[in-house]
Structures are given as structure tokens and as C-alpha cells.
Amino acid sequence: MDIEQRPAEIVLDQAAGSLVGLAVGDALGGPVEGLTAAEIAGRYGFLMEMVGGGHLGLDPGETTDDTAQTIAIAESLLARRGLDPADIADRFSLWYLLQPKGLGTHTTSVLDRMAGGEDWEISSLKVQAQNPQSAGNGSLMRCAPVALIDHATHAVLIENSRLSSRITHPHASCQWSCAFVNLIIAELLSGSEITHAVDSALAICGHRGDVYFPVLERARNAALSADAGVLNPGGHVLETLECAIWALVHHDSFEQAVSSAVNLGGDADTIGAVTGALAGAAFGFEAIPERWLIHINNWQLLKDLAQELVKIA
Ligand SMILES: [Mg+2]
């Protein structure tokens, strides 16, 4: 169904679900970042509550860099009425100067250069050149706002999702993972069921001559196999993509998808954030458990930003 024919309140609920869901997944996973699944099981059983703690010393419900960068992108998209990478880079630089916790080494190197006054694209490419294989999940975790503003046109959505990645993560794996996840969110907003949305994103990307095929291969495998034992919850973008697609496709509620994602351990906050953005778009804001929501300080801000973005589209 075309999005214009869908009741506005449903689309608004899904859009809000995507950005608030991202923050909820970030906050649920933050305290167990860096633990193995077995360590989480030993400490919490199956983690289903906002516990706080972890290596960053988080408060229960405290979000990390994933949510902070998502807010920066969402606010920039609204202020500039579209994607302006230089403006986003300026916002990232100001935020970086506040010495936020939880940043990865690649992103730190890029933001260090940008905050020192170097052009965003030069910063991003220079850091990539130092380690050409580097393809972390640092742009995938924050890409959802682009899906909300650009969901109506696939080609624009793909271009802008990739561009939003290049601000810090120019590797093709990162660019196409962002495009792929955002296409799923766009399909969900237009009324597709989860498996259909994933299949559509695979088909749309598959028809592009410039697609980076490992992204599609890994996503397809994760959608086909319910076996969590084959997943590696690391910080490589393809590992995170795989975990999030698995969590989305093989669970029946927001709560199950997001809790299953963070209980994989590893880069649990970012796996939680990506899964939360997808599952929030699938099941909607109203499906987010209230006992999680009450711990998220800025959920109202995220809800408002999401709904403004989807109204522009
Ligand atoms: Mg984080």
C-alpha cells in the first residue's frame, strides 16, 4: 500500500517507534556491552530490564553515542530541510568536544580531525585510508532519521543513507548497510509486513549495479536462519546488520526482538539500537514497553523529531 493511503496516525506511530526504539535498544544494551552471551546469562538470566552499570557506568535507561548522533542527524535534517553533511559534521564536532562516552576508535579519529577544523570528507577518507578494511557499525547505528525524511523515493533514500554514512564511515559495507536498513524502515512505513519489507529491500538493492553484495548476502542469510548460534555480535557493520536482521525477522514483538538482540552480547548497545530502529518501525511506538520507556530521558524529544521528519517527506 502506498504510504499516502495509510492512516496518518499509524505512520506517525511507526516513525516515533523507530527513533524511540533506537534509544530504548541502545539503553537496554549499554550495560552489557562487551559481555558475552554466557556472561549476560550468568549475571542476569535473560536481560529484560533497564539495569544500568556496565563498563561505561550508565544509569538505568541512559543512552550512549548511538542515540546522541541520531538526535544530531535528526535535528540537522529538520533545520536544513534535508541532508547537509557539513552541518551534521559541525554538530558531531560540537558534541565530540563534550567528551562523550562510548565512541569507537575509528569515529574518534574522524571526529578529532573534524573538531580540529578539517573538512568532513577529508577527515573521513584520511582515517579510512589508514585502515582500509575498517568497517565498523558507527554509521549504521544512527541512520534511521534519513529513512523517515526520505522514505518516499528509493533512489533518494539510498543516496542520502550512503552519504550520511560517509560523514564518518566511507567503506562500502557501511554505506550499503545504512541504505539497506533504511529501505526496510521505508517499506515498513508504507505498510509492508516484516518479511516482505526485508525481501523488498533485498530486491531494490539487488537491482542496483553499484550495490556492495556482501551486505545483501549477510542480511539474506540472517533472515533465513533462526539459529542465533551462528551470529557474531561484534562491532563490524556486517556482524551488527546480521544480528539486527535476525532479531527483527525471527521475533513477534518489539520487546522480544530488542531483548533478544542485546542478549547476544558483544556490541550490545549498537545491536540494540539498530534492532530498536527496525522493530520500532515495524511494531510502532505504542508497542514499546512502558517499563522501558519511563527510563529514557529524551523519549519525547525523539518522538517529536521522528514525527516532524516523516511529515516533511
Ligand atoms: Mg554506543
How is the secondary structure organized here?
Layout: H1 8-29, H2 37-44, H3 65-80, H4 85-96, H5 105-115, H6 120-130, H7 144-150, H8 154-166, H9 172-189, H10 194-206, H11 213-224, H12 237-249, H13 254-262, H14 268-283, H15 290-293, H16 299-312
Helix pairs in contact: 1-13, 1-14, 1-16, 3-4, 3-7, 3-16, 4-5, 5-6, 7-8, 7-9, 7-16, 8-9, 9-10, 9-14, 10-11, 11-12, 12-13, 12-14, 13-14
Magnesium ion (MG) is lined by residues 64-66, 102, 269-270.
Structural description of this entry:
With 313 residues, this protein is mainly alpha-helical. It has a single domain (3-312), classed as ADP-ribosylglycohydrolase fold (Orthogonal Bundle), CATH 1.10.4080.10. The chain has helices spanning 8-29, 37-44, 65-80, 85-96, 105-115, 120-130, 144-150, 154-166, 172-189, 194-206, 213-224, 237-249, 254-262, 268-283, 290-293, 299-312. α7 (144-150) runs parallel beside α16 (299-312) and α12 packs antiparallel against α13. It is globular and about 45 Å long. The two termini are 16 Å apart. Magnesium ion is lined by residues 64-66, 102, 269-270.
